[in-house]
Structure formats: C-alpha cells, structure tokens
Amino acid sequence: MSFTTDTLEQDLKTQEYKYGFITDIEADSAPPGLNEDIVRFISAKKNEPEWLLEWRLKAFAKWKTMREPKWPNVSYPPISYQDIIYYSAPKPKKVLNSLDEVDPELLATFEKLGISLDEQKRLSGVAVDAVFDSVSVVTTFKEKLSELGIIFCSFSEAVHNHPELIKQYLGSVVPYTDNYFAALNSAVFSDGSFVYIPKGVRCPMELSTYFRINALNTGQFERTLIIAEEGAYVSYLEGCTAPMRDENQLHAAVVELVAQKNGTIKYSTVQNWYPGDKEGKGGIYNFVTKRGICKGDNSKITWTQVETGSAITWKYPSCILQGDNSVGEFYSVAVTNNMQQADTGTKMVHVGKNTKSTIVSKGISAGKGQNTYRGLVKILKKATNAHNYSQCDSLLMGDRCGAHTFPYIEVQNSSARVEHEASTSKVGEDQIFYCNQRGLSSEDAVNLIVNGFCKEVFRELPMEFAVEAQKLLGISLEGSVG
Amino acid sequence: MLTIDNLQAKVEDKQILRGINLQINPGEIHAIMGPNGSGKSTLANVLAGRDMYEVNGGSVEFNGQDLLDLDPEVRAREGLFLAFQYPVEIPGVNNTYFLRAAVNAVRKHHGEPELDGAQFLKFAREKAKLVELDPTLMNRSVNEGFSGGEKKRNEIFQMAVLNPKLAILDETDSGLDIDALRIVANGVNALRSPDRSFLIVTHYQRLLDYIVPDFVHVLVDGRIVKSGGKELALELEEKGYAWVEEELLAGAIA
Amino acid sequence: MGRGRAIGGGDCLKMTTMSDTNLKYREAALAASQHPQPDWLKLFRSRAWNEFEKLGFPTTQHEEWKYCNVRPISEGEFQSPLVFSQQTNGYIENLGDDDAYLLAFVNGIYDITASKISDAPVGLTIDSLASVLKNIPDLVKPHLANYANFEGEAFVALNTATFVDGAVVRVADNVVVEKPIFLVNYTTSGTAAPVRNLVIMERNSQATVIEIFLSENETSFSNIVTEIVVSESAVLNHTKVQLEGGNANHISTQVIEQSKSSVFDSQNICLGASLARTTIYARLGAEHIECTIDGLYCLNNNQLVDNHTTIDHAFPNCNSFELYKGVMDEKSTGVFNGKIFVRQDAQKTDSKQTNQNLLLSDDATINTKPQLEIYADDVRCTHGATVGRLDPNALFYLQARGIGAEEARSILVHAFANEVIQRVKPVGLRTELEKRLYQKLG
C-alpha cells in the first residue's frame, strides 16, 4: 500500500469535488411529499407482495409518532419532509436482459466515477451492484456467484426471488421502530443490495455496491441486508457520490448484517457524498442506521469506514455480540472540513460470553468542521469475560474546528475488561517543518502526517479501497494547512 | 558554497542574530561554538528556513542562489540538510517510506528518475550500515519511541541517504553518551568529501575530538567574535566562554 | 454561569397545583425567605423557586440524569429541617485532625456548641451563612448564588430557594491559613436538609478546606450547594468526604470559579449514602490556572453513586488533571461522567482525565462517560477509562508468597483505592479515611 508524491500532487490539483457532475437522464419519479399513498405508490412500483406493503405502512404509522432526534452534536435547519421526492428511478426503456441494454448514459456515469460495470474490464474481480438514485441498475458477476449458491442482487429482486429470506431477516436487526430515520427508511425504501452467503462458502470476490444520488430534491433510502450463514465469509464494499447541488439532500439508509455461527462479515464504506461548498451550501444529510448481529458462536463482524463526504453525518455502525466468542470491530476515519459536521461512532453490545470488541476511531477536523465521536460499549450481565478496547484520536487542523469525544461505557459484569483511550492533538508546525527540511512540500507533509494518523484504519480496508481512501483524504483536506 | 553576509534575525521582538558573516567553501568543516543563548541554534534554523524567525537584515548565498528567497523544502532539495537538535516524532509514518518520499522529492527536483521501493531499500540498507543504524528502526514510525541516541543516529542516517551539499548539525552531540557520539562522528567522517561541507553547531568541544574542523568560530550575543583553527576549540574548553567575553570586554575598554 | 435573567418582580411564590412533596418544599422556601437577609437574595430565591417548580425533579429521560434515578428523593417523605430536636451530642465523630477549625451543622443549621472557630487568625472569616446574611451581607453579595446557576438545575434551584444556613469561609488577600478548616454537616433521619457553603479565597491566599457529610442511618435527603472562588494566585486544597448513613440520599453541587494563576486541588471521597450524586463544575476563567479534581467512590449493597464533573477551559495556558477511581461491590452502581470542555480561545490547554474502575461482583454495574469537547486546536487533551477486575496474576503472585486469597484481594483493592486517599492533605483525616475504607471493603 503506497502512493507516490507524484500521484498525490496530481490528485490535489483536483480542488473541487470531482464527482459533482449531473447525469441528464429521464427519470420516473413520485411527486414530492410523504403520505400513505406515496408508500403505496412505491410498493406498487416495485410490484411488492402484500406483506411488505403492510410492513411499510406499519413503519410509516410509527414514523408519524416519532420525533427527529435532537441529541446529536450537529445543527441544521429543519428538514421539510413534505418537499422531498421519495422515489426516483432512471426510466427503463425496456426490460433489461444484459448489460448491453443498460442506458449508455448510465454506464458512462459509472465509468466516469471509476466504476466499470463491464465484467470483462474488471481486473480485480469485484462484483458490483450499482444503485442510481433509488434503484439498482445492474449487478455484475451474478452468474459466477450463483454457482456457489451466493445470492448478490438488488433488494427488489430479492423480494421477488427470495421472499422467505427477506421475510425472515428484514427488520430483524434494525426494527422499523428503532429510530426516526430507520422508521422513515422502512416506510419508503426503494432498493439496495441483498447478499446471502450459504453455509460454509467463502465468497471468492469482494462484493460492492455503488450508490449514486442524481436527481434533484430526491431522498435516497436504500436498504442493505447481508446474511452470512454458518462458516460463511464475505467482504462487502460500499461507495457513494452525489452531484453538487445547492440544496441539501437526505440520505437515510438502513444496513442489517447477520452472521451465523463461525460466519464473518467485513463491511467497508468509503463515503464521499457531496459535502457542500466552502460556505456550507448544499451537501448530503447522511443519516444512516447500520447494525450487525453476531448471532452464532465465533462469528465476527468488522465495520470499516472512511467518511470524507456529506454535509452532516449521523451514523453509528454497531454490533450486537450475541454468540459466545463473537467479535465486533469498528475502524473509522471521519474527516470534517469547511462547514461539515459529523457525529459518528459505534455501539458494541456484549451479550455472549468471551465476546470481544475493538474500536479504533480517527477524527480529523479542519476548516470549521465539527467532528464528534459518540460510542457505546455495553457489557451485559451474562457476558462473562467480555473485552473491549477503544481508541479515539482526534487531529485538529486550524483553530476554527472542533473535536469531541463522547464515549458511553456501561458494564454489568465483573469479569469484563474495558479500556478506553482518547487523545486530541494538532498537526504540529514542527512536524511540517521537519518534513520540509527533508525536501517535502507542506501539502505532502500534511498528507503524510494524516495518513500516518489513519494507518490503523486503512490497514483494515481492502487494498483497492485503501489507495482510494488515501487519495480522498488528501483531496478532502486540500488547502486546510497554509 | 555558502556566503553569509551581515545576517540579522529576530524572534518575536527579540533580536538574536546581530550581523553574522561567514564563508564556507566546498569540502570545509566549520564549527560554531558559543554559550547558551548566543544564537547558535537560531543560525542553524534560519539557514534551514524555519518561519518562526524573522530575518531583518543581511543576505545568504548558497551555490549562487539567494537562500533566503527559497522555501524550506526547496533549500533541502538544493542540498541543504539540517540535523535537528530535537528530531520530531511523526506517529504512524514509516521511517523508510518517509525517507523514500524525501529522496524522490529531491530526485524529481533535479530531473532524475524516482527510485522504486526495491531500489530504495537496497540503497538505504547500505547507508544504514554506514551509521550503524539498527535496521529495525527503519521500519518504525519516524523517530517515534526512539531513544535520544537513536534519534540522532537516525538524523545522520537521513543525511547519508539524502546526500546533501551542506550539512548543518545542530547540537547533534547533546544528550549523547560517548559510544553514541563516536558512532555519529564516524558517520559524519565517512561522509566527508571534497565537495561536501559541514557546519557543526555545538556547545562543547568534545564532538570536535572526533570530527576535526577546519575552522572554529565563537558566537557570542548574535555575532561571531572570534575565529580560528581547531586549536581554538581546545582553548575554549580549557578557559571557558567567559574568557572570550572578558577578552571582548577588555577590547571594548581598550 | 452567572446570575440568570430576571423574571419580573419579587412576588413569585405563586400557587399552582403541586404534589404534597412540592408543597412541603414550598413551605420551606417561604420559611427560608422569612429569615433576615438582604433583598437581592430574596429575589434570587423566588426566581429559584419558580425554576424548581417549572423543572420538577429530574428523571432518567434527562441526559445528565440518565444513570441516576432520584425517585427515592422525589417520592420520599422528608420533613423540613426548621423544627428539629438538637441531638448534636457526639454526632461529630473524630475525623482526625484535632488541630483544626471546625464549623458544625445539623441539617444545614449552624451548631455553635460543636464548632471550634475561636482562634481564627486575622484575615480568616469562618462563620455561619445565616449570621453573615444578617450582619455583613456585603461580604457574600458578589459571590453568593453568582456561580451556581439554578437555571435548568432542579437541585440547585431547590437549594437556593430553601437554604437557611451553611458555612462561609473567606481568606483575605495574602493570608495563609495553616490549620485545615473542617465544615461538617450532619443530617438527621427523615429530614430534607439544604446546605449552602461558600468559600472565598482572596488574592494570593492559601487554605485547606474539608467538607464532611454525615447522617443518621435512616432515610434522609441532604441537598448541598458549595460555591468556591479562587482569586488570582490563590491556592485552595479542598476535600469533600461523603460518609452519610446507608439509607441517606445525598445531592451535592460544587461550583468552582478560578482566576489567573490560581490553583485548585481537590479530592472527592464518596463512601456513604444509598443514593449520592455529586456535580462539580470548574470554570477556568483566566490564564495559567491549574485545576485538579480527583475522586474515589467505594460502593457496596445497593448504593448508587453518580459523579458528574465538568472542567471548562475558557482561557489559554491552563492545565487540568482528573483522576477518578471506583470500586463497586455487591449490587452497587457507579457512574462517572467527566467532561473536559476547551473553548475556542483556550489554546495551549493541557488536560488529562482518567477514570479507572474495579468491579468486585457480578451484580455490580459501572457506567462511565469520559468526554472531550474541544473547540481549540493547539491543545493536548487525553482521557482514558478502564473497567476491570483485580489482576489475576497479581493475586496469584501474592498467594504464591503465602498470602491468603481474601487478604491478597483486600491488599490489591486498597492499593487501587489508596492512590486518591493519599492525596488528602490533613494527615489525621487521611488515616481516618484509610481506616474507613478498610471497614467498608472488609
């Protein structure tokens, strides 16, 4: 894993958010606003079975009774939920049978984002599910995977082809009652990815979903469900971008992971939604609920996230460690520059015996960015010999930003060992000068220092993502040290 | 190589350098000695381009260029190396990786092709031997958790790798035991060459037992008040800085 | 902080529908306002009462009270302390240092017979608050109720509305008080006792002040507010010792206002009560301040002890240190919630916060939340929290040297807890605390 100063410099020349273009494509959209009819409209559009519509309606009823959470350490003007478009899909010209029939405009969009949907062109063997606005446009390598019994498809497809799995697992980790945005998502979710790895199968390639918000005033509400059966393994990657628009757009996703006995799920995110401009105009509100359950003994879930985008990020990828000896991990790099705000962290709930969790959180604040780590480590009474190690470090660049750490630790078992460490420091002028004196420019020096600071997290990312994440970090922090 | 003409510098409102004149030719080793607070480290840092000091008079020419006009990284790329008195720790940044980035920045500056990982490693290992650097240190983060002696040795190692034209050693001997001092000095001596010059800033004469200078200058209160050959260092050691100051005083009265 | 916005005139003890409990507090507030006192205080009191009435007692829905259920207080039946039978004999146990000044209170009311202040030197004022308010109110006017903000703080509001008495300690400019100053309060069964203490350290003064809280064994409710002013270059050593009886409820709020180059060094030892909540807020209001807040909580039975601390760095170049240690046995619950707040101008802040916990039983719980909230960039702030049990290797090592398992355990727990006790300045008190720790931990 390395990059040369050369490529970095080139990347750093790209000062603006380079994914900010808009694709001109005809879309099939619902009228703005939210009511029961919209929920029915979405369900009908997707040709859903009755039970799913009922589930959506229950979620919608619940949502109406709930209030938007005010406890996160972020501030934004009130969201008008009636002005949002809850469904937008690129208009299909006909039923698609192969990639050749996908709108070339769409293919070009993903090419431009560096996501090739052409299986032949993929070198490293990553299967991709591409989600454009509210729907999945194409999933690659499907057949190859199905030979192993692996299901990797859009959520809508799974509803039709594997209803028993959806019925069993939908809402089993994040019930629609969980929180305001989870309830909203449950009512109006439009698509997303579904992964099922059967017993004993090790998924031979990285599975990846690429999310793209394109349409104006549209919310994106996708749902991802990943199930690793006994002894199964999967590594899943998620990437996201959006065009530059002056309005804020809402993204409220739900991700549910289930790892059965000896199962392992690695879930990696490089979140690069449009962060808004320097004055804080525009950008995505990224209000996401992600939770995994280590259901069986010896199961393991690892969340790795690199969060550089979004105007506001509110998310806490969590693990419920129910099986004995199960392991939960959370590795996070969150960058806030300019006017960005992030309130992110994790929850590790230890239920089973000998459960172990690791939290490594690296927050970088620059410009007027506000970065909050919020985490919960909970050791329940029966979780004998549970162990948690948490490390939360913050790096400050500039005197107008903020770094905050709010860890909650609740322990009800005397055999537990919990260690939490946190530190806050700034990028030292002496460090930059030292690098200068060895011939490195200040920009390179900052990149070097920042990447060194984040190393423990990047190490957890699949190679391809790690390189991209490093570059992204450089671009996000461009111009933050004079 | 280096011509310093009436150089003056201050930090905040305190004038520290009050007119330094110094000429260093290729291959020469100059030692700057002086009591604490005389401006030795300031001189070293001003030459390297540290921005906490404000130059408010004089000029410095380095290989035909106006040194003071160059950014610190450009000075480094042009061949000016500062061995820091307090080498800085950079957590998480691998020592080898750091140095390769530095070497390639210098090579690029001179239009030379960059070294790939394997080439660089081979090259660096040779240099590590030269300064008796524990090879495991190369894989650790830059200076992080290094002992005082390891940090200083790492500085000399970086110098060997970066191959500068002018090396400034800022109190490299401070805090070193005699064995570490000998190793550092051996490293420096191994790098002596007809086209490389050294400026050694030190408080004590001891380092100069091992690195024999061509010239010794005494810095007092921001000025070079006495210059001489290597014997001057011994004389200073014997009589103390007070001797020079008294002499100065006597001169002033007379 | 500072005095809240004025809300209309002085007539504010308005009647609304209230629970019986609140009615009793209202009576107490009315009674408190009848005592001799300046008008500015009466105004505060009425505003404070309105605030309390508005807020009511906090519930666990309130983030700051998430782990602290005060139902034993809100649903408890307590008598106002205004009518109490003096039973002072022997209530002040010998907590060590005989050579000290002592102000004694029963249910927050000054007990002259048990106090020892006759030999106070020039420059040291130690007196009952009721007496100061009656005779020399201007002494406390700039400070009383000026730091402990009652807006949004139900217990501070209740205290401000109902207190009758308390201690005033004032050390004049440049005066160094050698002997420690003990402020001891004893709460009797069935009583709701507000206690209001004020410590004023004038410029360049030095003193050691110890607050001790005791009670009878049956249920009671002491509600303490202590305001502490440490002026420029002053040094205050402060120890709070909470040793109330096994059924007592203890709510305490400490507010510290520090000025330039001052030093505040404190230990908060919490061994007693059934429910105890201590809220500490230290405002570092100038440069070059040093603030140390240490704590020890050793719990058993069903004890619930909640420690809330905030260190507010408002200016550059200040240092703060915080070490809180907890030992939870049986069915007890410990809470630590420490916040280091670094405002935008507070560059070069150096702050270290540590919370370490030992759980000795599977029925014990610890909830800890060490927080950093940082708006300045050139700072060095760290915090750490650990939860664990005794190191089995250390236990085994002691056993291998012939020490029985029980004793080995006891030695290790004491070693853990002692770190904070050893920071207590008066030797006699320290010895006494070590003894009590032994009694408690067995």
Overall pLDDT level of chain A? 84
Number of domains of chain C: 2
Structural class of chain C: alpha/beta
Helix content of chain C: 10-25%
Tally of DSSP helical segments of chain A = 11
Description:
The complex is a heterotrimer of chains A (482), B (254) and C (442). Chain A contains 11 helices and 24 strands. Chain A is α/β, with parallel strands linked by helices. The two termini of chain A are 28 Å apart. In chain B, α5 (148-162) packs parallel to α6. Chain B has 254 residues and is an alpha/beta fold. Chain C folds into 2 domains: 5-392, no CATH class; 393-442, no CATH class. Chains A and C meet through β22, β23 and β24 of A and β18 and β19 of C. β23 of chain A pairs antiparallel with β18 of chain C, so a sheet runs across the interface.
Describe the protein's topology:
The complex is a heterotrimer of chains A (482), B (254) and C (442).
Chain A: H1 5-13, E1 27-29, H2 36-45, H3 50-65, E2 88-90, H4 104-112, E3 126-132, E4 135-139, H5 142-146, E5 151-154, H6 155-161, H7 163-169, H8 180-188, E6 193-197, E7 206-212, E8 223-228, E9 233-241, E10 248-251, E11 254-259, E12 264-271, E13 283-294, E14 300-307, E15 312-315, E16 318-321, E17 327-336, E18 341-344, E19 347-350, E20 356-366, E21 370-379, E22 387-397, E23 402-411, E24 417-426, H9 429-437, H10 442-458, H11 463-476
Parallel strand pairs in A: 3-7, 6-8, 7-9, 8-11, 9-12, 10-13, 11-13, 12-14, 13-15, 13-16, 14-17, 15-18, 16-19, 17-20, 18-21, 19-21, 20-22, 21-23, 22-24
Antiparallel strand pairs in A: 1-2, 3-4, 5-6
Helix pairs in contact in A: 2-3, 3-8, 6-7, 9-10, 10-11
Chain B: E1 2-11, E2 14-24, E3 29-33, H1 40-48, E4 54-62, E5 65-66, H2 72-77, E6 80-83, E7 90-94, H3 95-109, H4 117-130, E8 141-142, H5 148-162, E9 166-170, H6 178-190, E10 197-202, H7 207-210, E11 215-220, E12 223-228, H8 231-239, H9 241-253
Parallel strand pairs in B: 3-10, 3-11, 6-9, 9-10
Antiparallel strand pairs in B: 1-2, 1-4, 4-5, 7-8, 11-12
Helix pairs in contact in B: 5-6
Chain C: H1 20-34, H2 39-55, H3 71-74, E1 101-106, E2 109-110, E3 124-128, H4 129-135, H5 154-162, E4 167-171, E5 181-187, E6 192-201, E7 206-215, E8 220-230, E9 235-242, E10 248-258, E11 263-270, E12 275-284, E13 290-299, E14 304-313, E15 319-328, E16 333-342, E17 350-359, E18 365-374, E19 380-388, H6 392-400, H7 405-421, H8 427-441
Helix pairs in contact in C: 1-2, 2-5, 6-7, 7-8
